[in-house]
Structure formats: C-alpha cells, structure tokens
C-alpha cells in the first residue's frame, strides 16, 4: 500500500506534470509533422533523422550568430535558430520527397536511410563542430538557450500552482500545441486538407478529381518535416539549454512515430497523447524499484503503442485506420 | 484561355519492360561514383585536404592491415547475416524492421547460456545449447508480430519497430542484473578466464593468421548459399515469392497464406537470433544495448538494394562496411566525430536508391517521344 502511495504522490505532483510535458513536446512536434506527412500517403520513417537534422541546424544557426557577436541578442538568436532549424529539416524532407515522390524509391527503405543519415549528420556536426569552426570546446549557445527557456512573465509566478502547471514553459511548448490544433483544423475543415486526405486515401481518385498529387505530397512531406524538426530544436534549446549531447535525443524520434499510431492519425489526440507518453517515459524514476526493474519499466511507452496497434487492428473501425495508400508510391500510368 | 489547347509535357515517364543487365549495372556504377564525388566534396569542405589522399587513407583504414581487414570482414559478415535473415520476410512483403530486437534477444539468450552453463557443460553441448537458445529467442521475437499480422493484419512495420525497443530495455535490464562490477551497468567480457562458449579460431591460425574471424566467415557464407537455394529451389521459397507478389493469387493457388507468413517470419527471426549468437560468441564476448548498433536497419537497405539476391548482398554489405570503417578511420585521423561513417553511408544509399528509378523507368522528352536511356 505504501508502495502505491509513494508512486501516487510522485505522479500527482507539479514537477511530474511539468517533466512529462517537457518530455512530450518534442514527440508532439514529431508526431504532428508525421501525421501531416502520412496523410499524403507517405510513411516517412526518416522523421527521427530529420529531428536530429533540425536540432543541429538550429544549434549551428544560433552558434554562428552568437559566435561573431559581442553582446548577442536572445531574440535574434531565436530567429537564427528557427530559420536554420527549418532549413536543415527541409533539406532532410526534400531528400525523402525527391527520392520517394519523383524517383519512386521505396518509402520504408528511403526513410530508414534518411534516419541513418540524419542521426549521423547530427552527431557528426555536433561532435566535431568546434574542430570544424576552429573554436574551443563544446558547441554552446547560452544566450539563445536562455531566450528559448524564458517563461511567460508574471503569469508563471503569480498564479501559484496554476501558473506553474500552465504558464511555466518556453514559447515552443505553446507553439507545439497551437500547431497541432491548426493541423487538426486544416485537415478537417479546409478544402486543401480534404484534398490532402484524398491523396493519402486514394491517389488515383484524387488525380482523377484534378488534384495535383505530386504537389500535395511534396508540400505535406516538406511542411511535416519542418514541423518535426522543431521538436529537435526544442530538445537542444529548451531541454538542454543550448548545447549538444551525442545521441542525447535518443529514441524520442521513434516515439514520435509511435505516437502517430497512438493518436490514430489525429493531431489533437496527439497533444494529450504526447503528455501521456512523456509521463510514461519518465515514470520509471518515480517508482521505488531496483535499478534493473526500472529498465523493464522503461518499456512502457512502447508496450502501450503495441497495445494500441493491436486493439485498433482488432476493432477495424473505419475512422481509426491509417491512410489507405500509406507507404505506396503513386505512378499515374500503373493500374 | 489555353484550356482547350493540348499541352505536351516536357518529359514523360514510362515504365520499362526489362533492361539489359549491363545497362542496369552501368547505372548503379554511375550512382556509386557520383556518391563518391559528393562525399569527396563534403570531405574537402570539412577537412580542406586532398580527397584522393583521404580516400587512400580510408582504404588503409578498412583493409590496411591484416587485423583491419578481418575487422572489416567480420562486420561485413554480420551485416550480411542480418540482411539474409530479413530477406525471406521481405520477399513476402512483410516489413520486418525488428531485426535489431531479434538480434538482441538472440544475444541475451546466448549470453545467458554462456554464463550459467559455461563451466558445467562440455564444449559441444554448450555450443548446441547456445545456438538453440539464440534461435529460439529470435524466433519468438519474430513470431509475435507475425501472428498478429497473419490473423488480424496488424501493421508489422510499426509492431516490429516497437519490439526493438522492448528488446533494448530487456538488454539494459540484463546488463544491470549481470553487471561485472556493481554500478557499472555493463556485463563485461563473459567467461574471460575459461573462454567457455567463445568461438575459437586459433586452430585455423596457420591458414588465416593469429587474428581472424574465419569461423564467422565460413558460417555466414554457408547461410548465404543455403538461403539462395531455399529461396530459389524449394517449395517454401516458391510460396514466399507468390505471397509476395499477390496474396490473392497465393490463396487461389491453395497456399495457406497465414501459415506461410508465420513460418517465414519465424525463420527470419531465428536467423537474426543466430546473428546475435555470432556477435556474442564469435566476436564481442559481451552484450550491450548497442550490440546491434543500427545494423538491423542498414541490413534492410542491403536486402532491398540486392533485389533479394543473396550473392549481391555480399558485395553491397562489403562495400557499405568498407566505406563505414574507412570513414571511421579518417574521422579519428582528423579528430572528427566517428558518426562520419553514417553520413557517408547515408549519402551513398541516397544515390543508389535514386538510381533505381532510371533502371525501372525511362524518360521521354518532348513531343515525338525521343527516348533517353
């Protein structure tokens, strides 16, 4: 009984919720990006790699700005970081798009190659940045990192527990939720969103309805990739405070892919799903078990994903299925 | 305005019926050369040294000494073994991206037998037990997603992916349970004193030199031949090809598709588990969460690029490992991060993947359908 009580006490605390949300935000960015991508019928398994590319891109951008500057301005640092983060993730997404959409390479294989490349690219640049630029020590951007970490003034420290629960995060946290909500609205309420879903369900039918399949696939994959890249940026800036850690991002990219399944391809569902995943990701630290049993506990997010996968395939509900042509290339002249 | 004017597209894409082998080879060769040029550019941008020189030291890094050559051969064999393992499943269009996990559980099973029976069992029995345990562990790990795929069409790509992480956590669990020094979190070398359960190649040192992985080499090459025969000349291999092309055709032909899926993926998992045995017993003598090291994913690409031909896989695995080990060497020479090898392998893969397009399709420019090869 005291065992359960101590777990409960740990979970129903402000710090646990804060940490769960902190862990969840990168996954939410990744999942939202991947949902938009998958809605076009592209199963981009390169998302974990793209997130690494976005992370190192943002870090490099901020570093180039801060390094040549006596008194770096946090706001300009943020702009530089976001710009280069988007640029690098766009590069990753473009590699995937050109190979799978124009050159019709196999999506799974291309995605895995992109993840190999992206993770290596991030670790390579992050690990040898000082050597390449000829600067001393580890790559750090203190000012920009602090600017990313800035909480909402007044609200975060004057509202007591409400303030710490809802207003004590950097702006990227709120951005991740806004983007997820916007994505839901876009997919369900706009003409372009309807067209995009049509492309993912049946590209030939969409083509016959004079929807430009190639354009939709390209745009969805590239925009999705850039949104995912922001997850990597969040990790290096707000979580690590503006520095690089080799393989520090770990398997969160794959968790983002898992979250897409958990959310049943609905971005709004991914919001609370990501916080739940974040909670599951750190739950082991709140359970008074031996160190070895904690490792078993870390299986939770993956086990839950498998459970959701199995249940949704058993139910066969129409609205809970992946886009029908997910993973298939589209070639107009092939029937 | 121009709605009724028929517009000719600048370029059209037409699927090729078949392509002469030498042209296909030429296209691939061009892709590889192009990728090497891009890598050279990148290397020059970063290190500012002569790329030819750098490539030369890459060759030196991969096969410069006897020891390095054997290391490269060892890594090639492991990558090849994994690629062979996932090939039957792939040919059936079952996307087993859970090789990492299947290797790890095979490795854990091997390590467990080595630890608990290393002193008690005679050598022959010990190896039998290790091999049986690794095969069984990999088989079970592969069979779980296969059962769900066969009966309820559960997405196997994502299921096997998640199984990887469960296996990784399982490995982390055993790393602590079996840790060599309290608090280190690593198992350390298993049976360091007795060397029980280590694949020993010392009796072959007259032929291959003192430092060699010849047994791994012989085993994996035998699997290569066996897999070629299995896929090409057996009833099972034929069933795999039919199910892979069209499940409905397979059903009409009286093939039990569910059973074929489960049997094939179980085989695939078992060979992955066996690769875990090769890794633990035949080279590293320990196991950690990074034992598989992403090779389960690279192997998928190897298998795909080889068009499921086991002998082509030898070439591709060797090339990728060669480039990877070479890149690691130059990275350490220039004090750069060793992930350089993944970057270079990634770039090469992009080019080869892209080149497939020109093998499968041909482009027709302009109105009169002038063909471009």
Short description:
The complex is a heterodimer of chains A (335) and B (373). Chain A is mainly α and 335 residues long.
What is the count of distinct domains of chain A?
1
Query: Can you give the mean pLDDT of chain A?
Result: 88
> How many distinct helices of chain B?
14
CATH architecture of the largest domain in chain B: Orthogonal Bundle
The most extensive interface, with participating residues per chain, is: A-B, 58 and 54 residues
Main sheet properties of chain A: none
Compute the CA-based radius of gyration of chain B: 23 Å
Strand content of chain A: under 5%
Distance from first to last alpha carbon of chain A = 63 Å
**Beta-sheet strand percentage of chain B?**
under 5%
The largest beta-sheet of chain B arranges its strands as 1-2-3
> How would you characterize the largest beta sheet of chain B?
3 strands, antiparallel
CATH architecture of chain A: Orthogonal Bundle
Any low-confidence stretches of chain A, pLDDT <50, length ≥5?
none
Number of strands of chain A: 0
Estimated structural class of chain B = mainly alpha
CATH topology of chain A: ABC transporter involved in vitamin B12 uptake, BtuC
The multimeric state of the shown protein is heterodimer
- Secondary-structure class of chain A: mainly alpha
The global form of chain B is: globular
Query: Would you tell me which CATH topology of the largest domain in chain B applies?
Result: ABC transporter involved in vitamin B12 uptake, BtuC
